[in-house]
Design a protein that fits this description.
Elements (H helix, E strand, L loop, with lengths): L1 H17 L21 E9 L1 H12 L8 H10 L3 E4 L8 H6 L5 E5 L7 H9 L4 E8 L1 E3 L26 H6 L8 E6 L21 E2 L11 H11 L14 E2 L4 E2 L2 E6 L10 H10 L4 E4 L1 E3 L11 H9 L4 H13 L18 E5 L17 E6 L17 E4 L3 E5 L2 E5 L2 H19 L6 H10 L20 H6 L12 E6 L2 E7 L2 E2 L3 E2 L2 E7 L2 H5 L11 E6 L8 E6 L7 E9 L12 E4 L7 E4 L6 E2 L4 E9 L6 E6 L5 E2 L8 E7 L6 E11 L4 E10 L6 E2 L3 E6 L5 E5 L4 E2 L7 E6 L5 E6 L2 E6 L3 E10 L5 E10 L6 E4 L2 E2 L2 E6 L3 E9 L4 E9 L5 E4 L6 E9 L2 E9 L1
Parallel strand pairs: 6-10, 6-11, 7-10, 11-13, 13-14, 14-15, 28-34, 36-43, 45-51
Antiparallel strand pairs: 1-3, 1-4, 2-3, 5-12, 8-9, 16-17, 18-19, 19-24, 20-21, 22-23, 22-25, 25-26, 27-29, 29-32, 30-33, 31-32, 33-34, 35-38, 37-41, 39-42, 40-41, 42-43, 44-46, 46-49, 47-48, 47-50, 50-51
Helix pairs in contact: 7-11, 8-10, 11-12
Length: about 850
């Protein structure tokens, strides 16, 4: 379908180039459909005829709005035209080819959108003699989602779902990590110039990175543009950040591809002069144009497309001025003024790569323009991303969901065909880095890039095509026809129904080494001598071994399992490369399998299994059949404490005993394994659960004094409660005055913090795995440091207490209001050992309390109730 369309377009272009239209009687002009102004900027692109352009270019260059064309002048007033300027600048080095491409005929006319519908304004301009076409400039948007969460660069190496990545590791290892001879133009938001992981971004300046946003004089970097650039060229092997597809190898001093930032999206991602950015990139060394943006079809801005908006997307094609710029880039990137490849350019001509869009519809201008490479998106599971546009016009797909890359000042995840597109640009840059040079063309690049992609793992369907899956290694090995060298030497041995092979990795002339090997076995030698390796008979048993990171000459091992016992087989090995070119067979050998072998049970360690009640014991066992037969495992636990769950390793089972699930005692678990031939193996596993020791109180009462608000004290739990078995007890707290003292337990430590003056009793209880408990109490006093003496309570019903800050002999004398002494004693007193006076027999009334200690005397008054 695409090739047919290309032919038709070329035919139209040829017809236009051969027909000169008279100014006085133009043919029916090309006009835009009636669409709401919300889809457009306030600018219209027009393409003048050669004659008209020659008449008006001097006036427009001088800033004039009026020309010698009266119909045009009438529209200037009617449309509220405020400015007219060239779409494309001029490069003195390439004026001849720019004019040959007709870039000097394109102008941008800014009008007042409040005066007229933009499509109507374009229709009016298109009717003016000397104007070939007029189109309102569409607003554009980047093709990303802003979902951000913990990063995983699965697009480069999908370890959880092997195969659904871009398969780049072997390219880095065997071919290239990128070259700074290659420049990729990123037409997007601005790229952060000083990002720690983007050292190859070309600085602003003559021929360097540049903004094409109206009214801007310098690049304003954004997350989206920086994210796209990071996918392509973030520095590899530099110990920080992320890896770029073509980011070089910092550890070896190898620079990655360079990024030319051509900003044509601003903060709100509206449009700038994208066509001029494309021309500029072609004229300043870029050979790959990366475009993660597209047109906006959401007329009402509600976040989804209704039927009319989908129809609008279906009817929309690439703007003519952008198509002209794309054509210019494809034709002249990497070339001199006459279209010949520059001596220092890695490629003749350029490739333009566009994101397919995120509307989940079968349309998507401008990515559906025949001459560009359109990129759909996949998720980490190999499915089409739910948002990805699709259709016969989509050329290739790449990872686009949850992609981690650089953003302003850091790193984050984003999703969208915006993220899939730079993966393709990055692999294209790798291809140019390796194969580029004199004679290498953009068509050669496109062929390798697209034909080397993997159709077998693509999620494309006839109704929702997003192309084959990007495959970096497939593109590098594309076109290889030479199979790997034949395996000349190998060893075999048989054990039960298994034949084992050992051989060395062989070389491959155009791929470096074999991709993998087929191990073959049959009871009929003739089947191997005449075998078609692309159509192996069911009677031939085979297995596959992938080389992986092994080098030529390294030893490989493999086996064919499940063979008949005591049977003679004929065996051989055949290598294959990534393009499924098969080597000739090795020598055919005769191997006889042996009789059935019983299953094997082996423990990871030996020794008695003895555990305390609070402990859990585990021991790994490998349980398998050496002949690769199916097995049945019978497990008798001996008690409720034992189990035998599967482990994480191959053939691994983990014998587990949880001590508190059974009473103390001696037990035996039995494992019996039986194969399909009724051969069996048995393992008796003895284990002992020891008697539990209840926790005990070490100190029943512990005293703590705090002397300031906020003051804290720590008490080790082992000073209060201990467990002979060394068990980590479960702790609980009881606090009589939580507003006076805050109590908490962490890391087997009791933390006490003063909240107010007063007393509290904090009781902690430790409970073991069998519910046995022990408790201890901590008396906490929060004492005012400014008061060396406490006499309480003021209203005495029975006992009066006298407490001093420090322990010393203290005299306490109590007299009545008439001076009669009712108490006079001297005794040691302290903060935790107060003097307690029995006043139960004292008559109600007021009493004076005289306290003497440390050479000081104090007087307090209390009332006996």
């Amino acid at each position: 379908m695409k090739h047919h369309l290309l032919f038709c377009l070329l035919a139209v272009f040829a017809a236009v180039s051969c027909t000169k239209e008279p100014i006085e009687s133009p043919e029916t002009p090309q006009t835009a459909p009636a669409e709401p102004n919300s889809l457009f900027t306030s600018e219209i692109t027009v393409k003048f005829t050669e004659e008209m352009a020659a008449q008006v270019e001097d006036d427009f260059a001088a800033g004039k709005l009026y020309t010698k064309s009266m119909p045009f002048n009438e529209l200037v007033d009617e449309l509220g035209v405020t400015s007219i300027s060239r779409v494309f600048g001029e490069d003195e080095r390439f004026i001849e080819r720019e004019r040959k491409a007709g870039l000097h005929l394109w102008y941008r006319i800014t009008v007042d959108p409040d005066k007229v519908m933009m499509t109507k304004a374009a229709d009016g301009l298109a009717s003016v003699p000397g104007i070939q076409l007029a189109e309102p400039i569409r607003k554009i948007k980047s093709t990303d989602f802003n979902d951000r969460y913990f990063p995983q660069q699965w697009g480069l190496d999908n370890t959880n779902n092997p195969g659904f990545d871009i398969n780049v590791a072997e390219v880095w290892e065997n071919y290239t990590t990128g070259s700074d001879d290659v420049i990729v133009a990123v037409l997007d938001q601005g790229v952060q110039m000083d990002h720690e992981d983007l050292p190859t971004v070309i600085p602003e300046g003559y021929g360097g990175s540049r903004t094409f946003v109206s009214g801007a004089s310098a690049i304003n970097p954004g997350d989206h543009g920086t994210h796209v650039a990071g996918i392509i060229a973030a520095s590899n092997n530099n110990g920080i950040g992320v890896c770029g597809v073509a980011g070089g190898d910092a550890s070896r001093g190898v620079s990655g591809v360079r990024i030319l930032s051509c900003q044509m999206l601003d903060d709100d991602r509206s449009s700038a002069n994208s066509a001029e950015a494309m021309r500029y990139a072609a004229n300043n060394g870029a050979v790959i144009s990366q475009n993660s943006w597209g047109y906006n079809f959401d007329v009402n801005g509600d976040g989804h497309l209704d039927a009319s908006e989908i129809q609008l997307a279906k009817d929309t094609q690439i703007e003519s001025v952008l198509a002209a710029a794309v054509d210019y880039f494809i034709t002249y990137a990497g070339c001199d003024g006459r279209g010949n490849q520059l001596e220092d350019s890695p490629m003749k001509g350029g490739v333009v790569i566009f994101a397919a869009g995120n509307d989940a519809i079968p349309y998507g201008a401008p990515a559906n323009y025949e001459k560009v490479i359109a990129v759909g998106s996949t998720d980490r599971y190999g499915n089409r991303s739910s948002f990805s546009n699709y259709g016969d016009w989509v050329d290739i797909c790449a990872p686009g969901s949850d992609i981690y890359s650089s953003v302003l000042g850091g790193y984050a995840n984003m999703s969208g065909t915006s993220m899939a597109c730079p993966y393709v640009s990055g692999v294209a840059a790798l291809l140019v880095s390796y194969y580029g040079g004199p004679g290498f063309t953009n068509e050669m690049l496109k062929e390798r890039l697209l034909e080397g992609a993997n159709s077998e793992i693509s999620p494309s369907t006839p109704s929702q095509n997003i192309g084959p899956m990007l495959d970096a290694y497939g593109s590098f090995t594309y076109g290889g026809t030479t199979p790997p060298d034949r395996v000349r030497e190998y060893e075999t041995d048989a054990f039960g129904g298994v034949i084992n092979f050992s051989w060395a990795v062989t070389a491959d002339e155009d791929n470096g080494k074999a991709e993998g090997y087929l191990l073959l076995a049959t009871t009929d030698r003739n089947e191997l001598e005449d075998i078609d390796l692309r159509n192996i008979p069911e009677s031939v048993r085979w297995s596959q071994v992938v080389v992986g990171d092994k080098a030529v000459g390294d030893e490989l091992n493999g086996s064919i399992e499940g063979l008949e016992f005591s049977t003679t087989y004929y065996v051989a090995i055949a290598g294959y490369d990534y393009q499924q070119n098969y080597s000739s067979l090795s020598d055919i050998r005769e191997v006889t399998t042996t009789g059935n072998n019983p299953p094997l049970i082996s423990a990871s360690e030996t020794g008695e299994i003895v555990l305390k009640s609070h402990e859990t014991f585990t021991r790994s066992y490998t349980i398998k059949d050496p002949d690769a037969q199916e097995i049945t495992i019978e497990f008798t636990p001996g008690s409720d404490a034992a189990s035998l769950p599967e482990g994480s390793g191959a053939d691994e089972y983990v014998f587990t005993v949880v001590g508190n699930l059974a009473d103390p005692g001696d037990y035996t678990a039995v494992v019996k394994v039986t194969d399909t031939q009724d051969a069996s193996a048995t393992e008796n596993i003895k284990y002992r659960i020891l008697e539990n020791h209840a926790p005990v109180t070490v100190a029943e009462i512990r005293d703590v004094m705090l002397q300031a608000m906020g003051q804290s004290s720590e008490v080790a739990m082992s000073e209060l409660v201990a467990d002979e078995d060394g068990e980590q007890l479960t702790w609980s707290i009881s606090n009589t005055a939580p507003t006076t003292v805050h109590a908490s337990i962490s890391s087997n430590t009791l933390y006490l913090t003063a909240l107010s003056y007063g007393n509290a009793q904090v009781t902690i209880t430790g409970t073991d795995c069998r519910g046995e408990k022990a408790s201890a109490t901590v008396n906490v006093i929060v004492k005012n440091p400014d008061s060396p003496l406490e006499v309480y309570p003021n209203l005495v019903s029975d006992y009066l207490s006298v407490r001093t800050m420090e322990e010393m002999d203290t005299r306490v004398m109590i007299t009545t209001s008439t001076g009669a002494t009712v108490y006079d004693e001297t005794a040691p007193v302290s903060v935790f050992n107060p003097a307690v006076i029995d006043m139960r027999n004292c008559a109600p009334g007021q009493y004076r309390v005289y306290v003497s200690f440390g050479g000081n005397e104090y007087t307090r008054t209390v009332v006996k109730l």
